[in-house]
Amino acid sequence: MEKPRSAAVYARISSDPTGLALGVQRQLEDCRKLAADRGWTVGAEYVDNDVSAFSGKVRPEYERMLADVRDGLRDAVIVYNMDRLTRRPIELEQFAQVCKAAGVHQVATVTTDVDLGTDDGLFTARIFAAFAAKKSGRKSERLRRKARQNAEQGRPGGGANRPFGYEADKITINPAEAQIVQEMADRYISGESTRSIATDLEDRGVPTSSGAAWRSTTVRNLLHSARIAGLRSHLGEVVGKAMWDPIISVEDRDRILAVAVTKKAAGRRTPRRYLLSGMLRCGKCGGKLFSSARGDERRYVCMSGPDHRGCGGVTVAAPPVEEWLTAAVLYRLDTADMEAVLTGQQAQGTRHAELTAEREKLQARMVELSEMFSEGEVSRLEWKAARDPLERQLTMVDQQLARVPGGHALAQIIGQGDALRAGWATMNLERQHTIIRAVLDYATIQPAERLGRFYPDRIIPVWAV
């Protein structure tokens, strides 16, 4: 058989947790040696690192090699072993069709050669592919069972990345990062957005465990994870307690999930540009004041017309109102009245505990239903009919949890007026608004009786607590 003028060398490894590509490098070295021993010219090398040949996911370099074979650029293929080329019988048939159409018959491996141009060669390749698929299927099932068992025993999951808040062993708490996690949880429960938190962490130079930038999705995934509450999850389902210590309480995690449900129901909004948006009322008609700029001047305005339905009779410059109400809120945080408020809110803990217990009961029923379906005790139709009402009940409970007054949020700021005042200028607008919202329900702005300068007696605050 004529020597190939331009052979393709293909190498692949399905898992490379270190990222060093040592496995494919060894394959390439052996394939190059095989080509040199036979006097074949290597036209190009194609490498898919950390990509499975059994999962069905796209392998970019494999697809590029097929295209080059199809276009006549390569007239032979060298791989370390046939299972490096494919572990799926259907993919082998596609590969064979491409080679047949291009007139490529020589497929060489370090262990054996396959002539796809003959019935015996194709039959041999099919046996290799079927055996590889069976082996991969059994391995996948063993790995799934092992992952489930590890989860049920509370052991850490796989993966090379260290979870933020924990050391490399995924069990020992990292004190400095744990403090950041607790801060993130407190701020999110208090109403601050994940985008605002991520921006603040980036501005402060707080590194993630992987060194990547903080994103709203990074913050959301961290806060919604069961791990930081000392729980072990598997495929998105909490299966029990973990063997590591929690950073936040289970109750705080329930609050986080409840806030997430409320935010989802409310929908997305544009980034905040005014500190007191939605918190000011017109002293003439009682309608909301809307943020409205005139040139470089920021204002809050009662707007008339069908979209706003206000009287249009009140306008106030934004900076002095924001400064006055900020000072009033921070002062109020250090008063004896706020200590009394916090004491009174302890009664809300009973209602929160009741809702939390109800939520846990519903979640347990969801888990039981899922197990019944996986064991074949109920059909898909029966499972869906039972699941849907449970999900509706869970949503209702989450919404009620979100509406229980948040003594938790206030507990983080009561008595901290001086400290907050000192760091106020470094906070982003979202965090400032969250603090004010925890204390102030709204403020009424009276019409101006004297033109010119701003007079504080126009502001009538209505405290939330």
Strand order of the largest sheet: 2-1-3-4-5
N-to-C terminal Cα separation, in Å? 89 Å
What structural class results from the helix and strand content?
alpha/beta
Write the CATH architecture name of the largest domain: 3-Layer(aba) Sandwich
Number of helices: 16
**What is the CATH class name of the largest domain?**
Alpha Beta
Low-confidence stretches: none
Condensed summary:
The protein has 465 residues and is an alpha/beta fold. It has helices spanning 22-38, 60-70, 82-85, 89-102, 119-152, 175-189, 194-204, 216-224, 250-266, 318-332, 336-344, 348-374, 380-403, 407-411, 417-423, 429-439; strands at 7-13, 42-49, 76-79, 106-109, 113-115, 231-234, 237-241, 280-282, 290-294, 297-301, 315-317, 440-445, 459-463. 49% of the residues lie in helices and 13% in strands.
